[in-house]
């Protein structure tokens, strides 16, 4: 069986790692296409090195641009790649512009499409990611869902027949890397010792709204602990544009961390404050309380289990972050760390059934 994975943004490299290893272990041919959506060394290359992912077979070199320009450039480049490799499966990941571009290319050329991390919903139609995931699920021949909540969303949209629960592949990576980093305290900026808060902010709904971004950054800067802010290029660019100081008060702004350093930094942190999807889940897996700077989340299990709280009122950010510790839990809503194996088996089964 020949699987062709399309990835382009940082969280997709993390999800690709266990799939690449599971596909190789099962003896399948695996072609990796990197769209180039994320291109900085710290946003891309280090993930391939640290997570031992084979070098992409194809790099589309698309880079940044408006949604239309970025997605359109990927679509235009993809036709020839799919025709050349003629895969048994095109596998797309998550909810980025690389996901929707890969999905559209595959279905228009009649290559079977599978969507990993299917069925996640924020029900916020102002998010570009929500459209990317809904449209991709409906285009896909196979929806690979990470959780039973995701399966329920797929069922509610009439997609049960094409859906399989495989577990969450980010959990595979996170648990494995957590084991290898152990209790190692990460290298942190000068002035950060003892308790600290780890933060990432990058979503368009936060970075592209000046009032909201100012409130978030001021809230973080006023926390009574050092805040290690690992800054996504979009945050740096928007903050500079609005004249918002990313080094004010408690803030210690650093460049994006590689994956093992990020896992170590989450484990050692007193709390996480983020608008990332993946990081909310990683904080839960590593049992660090998380505060999410959004009005909703796709990973509702983290909220239900008490390890994640939505900061709906930014004026109360400090109080929310500094809340009492949640009750310990053994719950494992994201699977047992073997989702990639289950994914490859689901692909094999659906391929044989065709
Ligand atoms: C994208 C995804 C989002 C995902 C995130 C992970 C979409 C619609 N959004 O958002 O779902 O959570 O990736 O990070 O696809 N840039 C650089 N260097 C890089 C990458 C980006 O400088 O390596 C800059 C570019 O100027 C770009 C901006 O960051 O304009 C935003 O990048 P973009 O790919 O548009 O989306 P993300 O915000 O990263």
TrEMBL record:
<dbReference type="Pfam" id="PF02350">
    <property type="entry name" value="Epimerase_2"/>
</dbReference>
<comment type="similarity">
    <text>Belongs to the UDP-N-acetylglucosamine 2-epimerase family.</text>
</comment>
<dbReference type="InterPro" id="IPR029767">
    <property type="entry name" value="WecB-like"/>
</dbReference>
<dbReference type="InterPro" id="IPR003331">
    <property type="entry name" value="UDP_GlcNAc_Epimerase_2_dom"/>
</dbReference>
<feature type="domain" description="UDP-N-acetylglucosamine 2-epimerase">
    <location>
        <begin position="27"/>
        <end position="348"/>
    </location>
</feature>
<keyword id="KW-0413">Isomerase</keyword>
<protein>
    <submittedName>
        <fullName>UDP-N-acetylglucosamine 2-epimerase (Non-hydrolyzing)</fullName>
        <ecNumber>5.1.3.14</ecNumber>
    </submittedName>
</protein>
<dbReference type="GO" id="GO:0008761">
    <property type="term" value="F:UDP-N-acetylglucosamine 2-epimerase activity"/>
</dbReference>
């Amino acid at each position: 069986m020949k699987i062709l994975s399309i990835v382009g943004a940082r969280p997709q490299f993390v999800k690709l790692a266990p799939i690449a290893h599971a596909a190789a272990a099962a003896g399948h041919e695996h072609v990796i296409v990197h769209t180039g959506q994320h291109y900085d060394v710290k946003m891309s290359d280090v993930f391939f090195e640290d997570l031992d992912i084979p070098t992409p077979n194809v790099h589309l070199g698309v880079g940044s641009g408006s949604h239309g320009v970025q997605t359109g450039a990927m679509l235009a480049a993809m036709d020839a790649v799919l025709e050349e490799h003629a895969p048994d499966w095109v596998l797309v990941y998550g909810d980025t512009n690389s996901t929707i571009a890969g999905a559209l290319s595959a279905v228009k050329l009649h290559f079977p499409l599978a969507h990993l991390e299917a069925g996640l919903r924020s029900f916020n139609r102002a998010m570009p990611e929500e459209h990317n995931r809904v449209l991709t699920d409906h285009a896909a021949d196979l929806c690979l869902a990470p959780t039973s909540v995701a399966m329920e969303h797929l069922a509610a949209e009439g997609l049960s027949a094409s859906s399989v629960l495989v577990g969450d592949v980010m959990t595979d990576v996170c648990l494995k890397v957590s084991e290898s980093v152990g209790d190692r305290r990460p290298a942190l900026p000068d002035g950060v010792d003892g308790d600290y808060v780890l933060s990432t902010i990058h979503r368009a709904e936060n970075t592209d709204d000046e009032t909201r971004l100012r409130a978030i950054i001021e809230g973080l800067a006023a926390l009574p602990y050092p805040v290690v802010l690992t800054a996504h290029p979009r945050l740096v660019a928007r903050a500079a544009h609005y004249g918002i100081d990313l080094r004010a008060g408690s803030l210690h702004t650093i460049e994006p961390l590689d994956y093992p350093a990020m896992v170590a930094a989450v484990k050692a942190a007193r709390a996480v404050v983020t608008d990332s999807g993946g990081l909310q889940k990683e904080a839960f897996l590593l049992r660090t309380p998380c505060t999410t700077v959004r009005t909703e989340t796709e990973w509702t299990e983290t909220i239900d289990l008490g390890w994640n709280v939505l900061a709906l009122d930014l004026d109360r950010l400090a109080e929310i972050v500094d809340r009492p510790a949640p009750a310990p839990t053994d719950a494992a809503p994201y699977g047992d760390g073997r989702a990639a194996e289950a994914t490859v088996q689901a692909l094999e089964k659906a391929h044989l059934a065709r």
